[in-house]
Amino acid sequence: FTDEARLLQRIEHANVVRVHQLVPEPRPPWLVMDLLAGRDLEATMQVEGPMDPERCARLFADLASGLAAVHAQGVRHRDIKPANIRLGVDGVPRLIDFGIARDANSARVTKAGFVVGTASYLPPEIFTEEDSGAVQDTESADVYALGCTLFEALAGQRLFAELTLKDMYLLVLDPNRYERFLQERLEKLPADLEPE
Fold this sequence. Notes:
40% helix, 7 helices, alpha+beta, single chain, three-stranded antiparallel sheet, two-stranded antiparallel sheet
């Protein structure tokens, strides 16, 4: 909790939830944060279905900018997914829930080879690299998760919706099969993603 707060206090960006103060006493500690009226992207998609491509492009450009600011401070989110993106009533998307975030410059807390986060948004390299935890601590892992979330917003379903972790592992081990799988998924996106 306090680690999350200290990481977030370093980040100032319109598309990242802002922590203004960590109050350690009285126990338990609490945070003074932005008030984020609205709902998360997951709840929005459950109500509205797949997102309009033009709106999606605007939101995800903003989120990518926010993620770049997070990375510029040496922070890795490690759990980007629709439930961790808040769509404010002001229309501004914000990255939230840095509960398993990590300072890339600090010692690792997660044991080597162990992975945290949500399976559907983890990069394929976690299955092929010796230290899968180190893979997850990279900027590219966050970018990959944001890309999976973008796909979900456009298609209305997760990229790996029906796959188990074992299925994902077997898929990644066969590059040709993995490429065919991704191509099939891309064909499920709306035919015309170009704004009119």
